[in-house]
Amino acid sequence: MNTSDYLNKTLTIKIDRPMGSNHPKHGFIYPINYGYVPDTTSGDGEELDCYVLGIYEPIETFTGKCIAIIHRTNDDDDKLILTHENEDFSDEEIRALTNFQERFFESKIIRPSDYIEFNKNIPELSVSNLQSSLNFYKTAGFKVEYDRPENKFAFISLGKIQFMLQEISNNEKWKLAPLTYPFGNGVNFQLEIKNVTKIYNNFKNAHFKIAFDIEENWYRQGSKLLGNKEFLVQDPDGYLLRFSEDLGEKNFVS
Q1: CATH code at 124-251
Q2: Model-level pTM?
Q3: Which pLDDT tens digit goes with each residue over 173-204?
């Protein structure tokens, strides 16, 4: 069985290194429960190892869902991540909780193909025409994570930036007042990306109107200045998007 075949599977494992125990060779303490899947063979010739998250006391066995795999790229020994059936942990949380041991290795986290790590704050934009909006956002490099064509809805992302787009309907329950162009007046979304010039050129070449041209700005935060290379563009409904590339920081001189 390929390691990735365990994703989303419910497994019962044995815990041979419970929370609070010491590593038999290196001496570090296990802050979480660590065990293995019986009757399996991993790349190192031993049973397939597992980290258990969401349990805060030492245990002997555990039955839970495999939500991710830590695939070590410089060591042939993958690790399953198990937790309760309806619980999830972000990649960042998995890294933090397993760093006591995984810091010695290079690795990547593997998720199910349909996995989406949702942000804690995801704006939903009411749009006049979903297809026109998608054409605009795809120009910036956004991709459709999933959609509901029957509802004229799409969930889109660009790196860690996430939006929901919902075409306005006659029975729009979220509509508290008449919408007039430009939508979202008084709000602009700052979207941090890695290559602002590329996205800027994509919009220019597609003949979208730029609200303010690409420029370098420095904003004071206490005794330092935070730099951004940025431009402002309006989507088809007038929502303001400020695409921004981090330029680092420098000392503020008054």
Answers
A1: 3.10.180.10
A2: 0.80
A3: 777 788 899 999 899 999 999 999 999 999 99
Which residues face 192 on adjacent strands? 244
3-110: CATH number: 3.90.80.10
Angle at 1 between CA 107 and CA 8, to 5 degrees: 70
Report the alpha-carbon distance of residue 50 to residue 44 in Å, rounded: 14
Q: Is 71 left (phi over 0), alpha (psi -120 to 50) or beta?
A: beta
Residues 215, 244 contacting (CB under 8 angstroms): no
- Residue 118 in 3-state DSSP? coil
Tokens 């909780």 locate to 97
Tokens of 161: 């930036």
Using omega within 30 degrees of 0 as the cis cutoff, is the peptide bond preceding 182 cis?
A: yes
Burial class (CB in 10 A: 0-12, 13-18, 19+), 161: buried
